[in-house]
User: What shape does this take?
Amino acid sequence: MLRILALLATVSAPARACDTALLLAIDVSGSIDAGEYATQSQGLAAALADPDVVAALLQGQVALAVVQWSGKGEQALTQPWRRMLSADEIARFADTAAALPRRYGSDTAVGQALDFAVSQFPAVADCTRHVIDISGDGQENVGFSVAAARSHAEAAGIEVNAIAIEDPGQSMPITSFYLKWVVTRRGFAMTARGLQDYPRAIREKLLRELAKPVG
Assistant: This one.
């Protein structure tokens, strides 16, 4: 009888709403070599295993997906949307992300990457916030549609944030490009000083994105 009552309580309990649908768009263009791709993949997996990130994902029952992107016509949903409903679910998603084979390796079509990412959100229409988390180490060099793509994202109510992967040094041309052309009005860009700094940047970025907006 107790088991039946417990089951009924579980079934009748209202499902918690999805706070955020977060799509991780990873640059796999030709400027990213095999070792750097592994650093990105393993850095994402490590960030998803961080206790603070896990807590934020579970609190909001966040939906996650991963896109790999490069040149014109080179975009793929490599990890379809999954709801983060348990620590085991998050661990499985992280393990898959770390082991994903690389799909492309040519030019840098940032605008097409954004448009492809925008097209994935009808599958998670019930989530309150829709966010694209795009990372890249170069400016758009093919397609030249990033301004229009950002407008499409804003019109759809999607926030676009970025990790700009810079070479070590004083200048920050990639960060400036993402701030000027990619990030939406309420979005932000975070700088990673080289691929080795990516794991730190993606952890901090996830925590900022998953924090509930105030006001």
Notes: The mean pLDDT is 90. Residues 34-49 form the longest helix (16 residues). The domain at 23-210 is CATH 3.40.50.410 (Rossmann fold). The longest strand covers residues 75-83.
